[in-house]
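Hi X.,

You mentioned you wanted examples for the new student's onboarding notes, showing what a folding record looks like when two proteins sit in one file. Here is a clean example. The first protein comes first, with its sequence line followed by its structure tokens.
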Amino acid sequence: MTGKIMRWVAGYHDLRLDGMMDLVIRAHGATVLDVGCNRGLVGFELANNGAEVVHGCDYFEDGIKTARELFVDLRNVRSRFEVVDLRDGPNILKAHFMSAYEMVLLLATLHKLKRSMEPESLRELIVYLGQITGHYFAWRGTSDKPEENEDEIIFLDLHLAGVGLRRIHTSYISDALGVAAIWERR
């Protein structure tokens, strides 16, 4: 890994994990899918806390390149990072990733998908992500408008409950940082 990337990682605290330290604690031995992984830093934190498999996807090609470089020296972690366009629906995920993960992360991503996907396609994607969640599904809303974050929580509650997940944790971090929530398989 290049020195530039290591210095960047060493000085970086990923705010997307604020309110979700329970997942970091439970990462040992876990399989993780990070949807909208950006540069893979959340997955890197989970890997450093014992996750055995970390897969991630994003539409941001430079981010995926960075994630691959970040994980290249982690020998005890099976990692895979792919550039995907989630507007193509669940089939794009089925083509690149496993059929089940203990943890599925959707951090600071749903608001972007809402802007670019038809409502029925978005519902189908969320249901699929819920179906492949073995234990924990985590979401992070980043809107500075509380009503938008609440709308996303209601949307997720509705569609994740239909596949056997129930919300067990909600953190209202701050107006600037948004809200974090975790659902668990019943």
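Then the second protein repeats the pattern, sequence line and then tokens:
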Amino acid sequence: MSPQKIVVLGAGNFGRETMDVLKAINQKCYQFDILGYLDDNSGRHGEMLNGWPILGGIEWLGQGNKQEIFSVCGIGAPHIRRKVVEKALGYNAKFCNVIHPSAIMTEFVELGEGIVITAGCTVSCNIKIGNHVHLNPATTIGHDVVMGDYVAAAPGVHISGNVNIGEGTYFGTGAVTVEKLTIGEWTIIGAGAVVTGHLPANVTAVGVPARVIKVREAGWQLA
């Protein structure tokens, strides 16, 4: 099987980390023909970044025959990631998953598309992970978790079993949940927080135990 041609959307911090995951995959088994990055900052077009070029903006996907080129979005902030993915879909982008070879994942995991799972993650059984989710290093996901699209877990996050996580939720570094919780969409959980109860949508929660310190209007992430 020929390697898949792929570009990373976003040439920022997590874009470089996503490229590192692709390189680690290829060191084990050559799966991807890495073409470079796409970034809408035109001042960076043509720049070399960690060995690969910034080819152009997202519109590059619509120039010529790009039917056999896959994409993965390397933008950390969930609300910005969604906007970039939607723009890329306007150019008929196709997305694939990028999973570090050191990640541990059972066969009983249902994956969407455009997912990035970095080094040292553990994903248990009977889990559903939505589209364009990012799991940073050493994150663990317990059994029967349901994770919506565009969720992001920073390094060292630990999510216990039977947690239902809404679209676009962001877990800060080292955040932890107990089991059997529901977390609403587009909620932000601060670094080191311990979530012991249900959280509504569109809030920021911090502390041990986590408490809500900010409430946003629905749709804030679209602004």
